[in-house]
Amino acid sequence: MRLKRLREEVLEANLEIVRRGLVLYTFGNASGFDKESGLVAIKPSGVPYERLTPADMVITDLAGHVLEGTLRPSSDLATHLALYRAFEGVGGVVHTHSRYATAWAQARREIPCFGTTHADYFRGPIPVTEELRADEIESEYELNTGLAILRRFENLDPREIPGVLVAGHAPFVWGPGPDEAAHTAVVVEELAHLAFVTLAVNPEALAISNTMKDKHFLRKHGAAAYYGQPSEKDPA
User: Fold this and answer.
1) What b/e string do you get for 110-127 counting C-beta neighbours within 10 Å, with b at 16 or more?
2) E strands of 117-197, at which residues?
3) Could you list the active site residues?
4) Per-residue model confidence as pLDDT tens digits over 68-93
5) Could you tell me the pTM of the whole model?
6) What is the CATH number of the domain that holds 194?
7) Minimal CA–CA distance to 97: which of 173, 161, 42, 157?
8) Domain of 166?
9) Which residue blocks in 69-177 are alpha helix, DSSP H?
């Protein structure tokens, strides 16, 4: 029953990023991690979203061994697994090539926290990784992508910064479950677009103050959060 539910949640996360316009053709993927069983469900590689069913989701362990499924898992599996192994409390990972967020990744620029919309979800700029070396690209590329993300987060809290731009590539985001990760992927694209427009309006725009940033983040996240209703999963 747990795996059935996990497959359904992962399929829904994959379909959500399509519905929200973050994916063209087979670009992108979503996965989910069940901590109790230690198993991961992920989209199969290269299969059109309109053809996907819960049964198509591939089940692996945290070492990447395929345990259930007849299709190849996403080629980004090793990146997802690196995040699950390292980030406590993450139960969903989403990778897209959404237009504006990918443009920032291609520009090798972090997305500044220009306003409270951004601070509602990220307690600071959305960081960008260092570029992979040639040997990292040529050997275990997807794993090395995950390791590049982990290096970037050596001094960052993934609970406060639930996403990253991989330099020259695109965004990866995460959350407590696949649905929250898909939600964050949508938010990241909106923040990337807003930042682009902000700089177009004022190339000298500055990030908001730390006081304002922390106020907006902490009123929605953490033990002292007071925004929304107690039963709501999503503070926004």
Assistant:
1) bbbbbbeebbbbbbbbbb
2) 163-165, 171-175
3) 120, 227
4) 999 999 999 999 999 999 999 999 99
5) 0.93
6) 3.40.225.10
7) 173
8) 2-218
9) 77-86, 99-106, 116-119, 134-138, 141-152
